[in-house]
Amino acid sequence: MISIYDVSDKREELKTLNFVFGDSEIKKSLAEDLNYSENQITIDKSGKEIKEKLKENLMQMAMKRAVMSSKMSECVEKIGIEPKCEFDSYDFRGFEDKFLIIPKKYGWEQMRNEGNKQPMDSNVVVNVDVAEQKVEKVSEEVTDKMREYNNHAFKYLHISIDCMILKTILDNIKDNKEFKLKPTIAAKLGF
Fold this sequence. Notes:
Layout: H1 10-21, H2 25-34, E1 43-46, H3 47-79, H4 108-111, E2 126-130, E3 133-137, H5 140-172, E4 178-181, H6 183-189
Helix pairs in contact: 1-2, 3-5
């Protein structure tokens, strides 16, 4: 599966190449590929072949997004409190106007646990006015569930952005055009 966030440490890749290939031409070519050189190994694929792989990836990502949405719903059900905070604009990477449904997240104020005297297994919420701002204090168990929800919400958001990018590529790639892919991209696409 391809993901926009799959970025690895080049030094580690070079160490691996050194171990696997020693001082061969293949290693040199792959090292040049990692350094974005002009003389790199490329894999020729048609737009049609790339589209097929992108469609497979898009379906897998859509399934992952559905799983994240389901996990978010389960967390909210267990927590018993709806998330209230908006995501920061930088989290959307410029795609905020493309979302039909924007999930919310639990903010720090909702997850605070100061002065809470509730038992660990309690999901009871105590409302307190602090400086004219309503703050909900919750048990540590609920706070952990809120963090879990936030993790799922961030994954949902990032998967959604990746899906939008893949859809844009799919809509604009020409079937009969040949593309030269770097080995790392070809491998991520499943070639």
